[in-house]
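One-letter codes give the sequence; the integers encode the fold. A sample entry reads:
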Amino acid sequence: MNQNSLFSDGEVEPPQPSEPQSHTPTAPPRLRRPDRKQVEWRALALDALLAEDHPVRMVWRYVEGVDLEPLYRQIAAVEGHAGRPAADPRVLLALWLQATLDGVGSARALDRLCTEHVAYMWLCGGVSMNYHTLADFRVAHEEFLDRLLTESVATLMHQDVVTLERVAQDGVRVRASAGSSSFRRQGSLEKCLAEAEEQVAALREELETDPGGTQRRQQAARKRAARERAERVARALEELEEVRSKKERRKKGSGTDARSSTTDAEARVMKMPGGGFRPGYNVQFAADTASQVVVGVDVTNAGSDGGQLAPMVDQIERRCGRLPAEMLADSDYAKREDITYLGGPDKGVVVYAPVRESGQSERAPHTPRCSDSEAVAAWRLRMATAEAQKIYKQRASTAECVNAQARNRGLYRFLVRGLRKVRAIALWYALAHNLRRLIGLCPSLVGVA
């Protein structure tokens, strides 16, 4: 070794760069390729897959604080007796709340999410699900959901978040699970009912004489389908009388053109937001203007919002234990009967709704009429003031905002049939909306620091 080159005090020449190695075109690149068939052992928990601040954890914290004793009492499988354990209603409640927030309205879609999406897998916690269980739970507990809405409102009233000083109401028309071609007149309905009853009788006879077990099950399914169709047609005939009487009251004919749907007998053809006429339901939401918390939910098959104001106020009184001081609604709700009822001494609710101009009268719309009650006359004079018009502007930022958020969560078409089931779906949307408001207004109530 050259000692001078190692310990010399002179300048050391910098190393010369080496010549780059030439790339051989024939040599393949070194890559890390996936091997999806490799068996691996991993120590992994579902809880570790979900971020600590994931919104689904707040949904679960809320559900943990809900009293589910009414649902637990309905479970037939109990300790010490035969029977397969039931899925925890707390899991089902959390799944549908999260699904509603995410705009998932199909039980089959939610079933897939329970095996594919980490957040829904975390909620399940290893509890297996199927779409039948999910679909049944969603519509089977309307009274419990209504009570849960009452409790959520009461909690926020206790925190002075909901004051009921001013409540805004608005309706949103939602497409029903029925086609326009399913609406038939009385003659067609009676013919369909006779055919359905004949099919049920034929299948019953065939089922009793068939020795094959597989064929028996298939025939039983066909018999059940035929029986359900017969029940729907019979229900359509019953609803036809109500449709006919409404047509006669509106003086649009003798009622002979009345039709009812064989798919969803309680659905009605109404004007939809797009301007067309489709089978649908009219969903009513009432929200506190100070907090945007939904305090009232109703569903009707009336195509107009007229006559929906007074029933909503009565519902709010039953739910909250007291009346709202003021109600804000658009001109469709401004029926003199409702204003008279609400403005009377028993209620004392101040109504803010625009006064429609009448083409049959030369008088100004805000001028009281001789036939007006005291409450209606006061309403006309009140709506002519600038203060009332300023107050009325809060309706759009409250009621229409609630409806818009429901639309954003998929409230465009119901996948269930009948007023009872449709109202259950509307309650899910109200609960999901209030949960979001609860997290935003009182995060400490759901364990959020």
Q: What stands out?
A: The chain has three domains: 46-76+85-140, 142-179+276-430, 180-261. The longest helix spans residues 213-249. Residues 142-179+276-430 form a domain with the Nucleotidyltransferase; domain 5 fold (CATH 3.30.420). Strands lie at 166-175, 183-184, 260-261, 268-271, 277-288, 294-300, 326-328, 350-352.
